[in-house]
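Both lines are quoted verbatim for reference:

——
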Amino acid sequence: MTSSCDIASSFKTLRKQLFEVPLRILGENDKERWSSSLYINNYRKFIEILEKVLFFLEPIDDDEDQHDRKNFYRVDEEDVNSIMDMLSAIIVASPKSLLSEPERCDDIYSDCPLVTFMLGLATCVLYKRVMHGTRPDCYSEFVQTQIPFCAGNNLFSGSQQPIKALNLEELTNSLSILELAAHTLKFDEALYQYVDALEERVCELLLHANHEDILNKKESRVAFKKDLYYCTTDTEFKLTVMIISVRRVANASLCLLRKGAFVYDESKDENFETLNSAAEYLERAVINKCLNIHSDIVQEEFENTFKENSKTASEVYMFHKINGVDARVDCAMLIQTFRDIARWSAITDDANRDITEYALDLKDRRSMAFQITFCLVVNLILRQTTSLNFTNFWIEGHAIYSMPEDIYAEFCKASKTTPFFVRSLGDACIYFSGRLYIFGQSSQDYYRALAFWCMTVVTDCGGVIVNDTRIQEFIEYICDETINPPVNPEKLQEDALRQAELEAKRSSDSYSTVTNLLSQSERVRQRAFDLFRRVRTSLQAEQQGLDSVYVIGDIESTGMPSSSKAGWD
């Protein structure tokens, strides 16, 4: 009989071999520099070792419907966690790279590597639950209406069952609702607990045989034996990409970085009015720019971006699975396939609205459309004044979370001289010198964050950013747009009449009037620079008590891919 010491030693050896399989990094060009992710370089070898690893995590006996009372080998929990972290890091960061069919071992699950890895991770998740029990902070036992996080973000699927008893339709609805709410979610650490509970339920449906009342869509199940069914391979793929997409939403919250973050609170800020003044300069300039965009190219770019962002990650992966990894994703076809024609019509109507409406309409200030308008117009101004591209400084939260350690170290190093604008869920944040600065989700928060970005460049970076490009021209443009806003054509005639009436009074003192106007313009511009410097200095004083955060920490995801269903039923 094999001793527990021999089992532990064998498992550790296999785990070491698994981690020694060569990895490579995707996205090494400049455009994707901060979107790099790990990628398995040798599928065949990795899956061969993974199969052997999973053997130690699967039930020893095969007693029907006794999932929680089966015998298991005892394996060190830290070793299991390390495998889970590795699998989760790979599949959540770069699922598209796992959609192609690789050369396989003879006995592995016959589907794409993404589902194979997901089944492996599911094996790890359920092994931990059996051996160590469900975590006390997990929401598996709760109905959605009992979860404050769901109530605060309106994440109800209509089910009256606890998460652990959701049927297939209720589970996919819950995942879809959370995925679609990604841009407006309010941060709460309970987000991870809720996602963990949904993920555990996904793992159960992937590995266990269930009755038809659980797999309640006829086309989504395949007969196993005696009124029991497995998910079809298409359903397994759908559940896999949906939980991956939802896990990316949770990762975008940057929970670990938030623990050491500077959170802006206007009620505690003595310089609140000063920061607001700087933000108002920027808001007026953005609105004025919107009013003076006469090119269809900009509106077309907004429409395309809006439609692109309306797609969910899971829909894109399902589209690629059907049409091929290299297929061009057609937004209209995708939305109509996985949702309905009416939803596509609504997206088209929103995309065709003039961007000025989103810049001015307070009802849309927290919407995805406002965030797109904000980024697009600020980018136009920055390119016009400095030739810089604002999108090079705009980064999504999940991209930071998914960075391999060496790329993250480079990112932190770059952040010491270049502040980055980060969207974490719906929050506008600035990442500078290894610390996250969080401002919030409202339009004013986005402008405050942009003002802080300018202040950081002026005060901490000497007014210079990327290849010795000076930011002064950008700030001067902002000030000039505020001081000298564009003339409304409808008032030209009225202004002309007023000018005629004042003509007689402008004789000898006309020169002094112009001089005064010019000096006033210069004074306002100087006040803007002073605002940037004063607010940045006051914020620095509040930051001194906070420790810098230079490492992202261990990935705390629970579960996703694997390979064999053997022994779970």
Summary: The two ends are 25 Å apart (CA to CA).
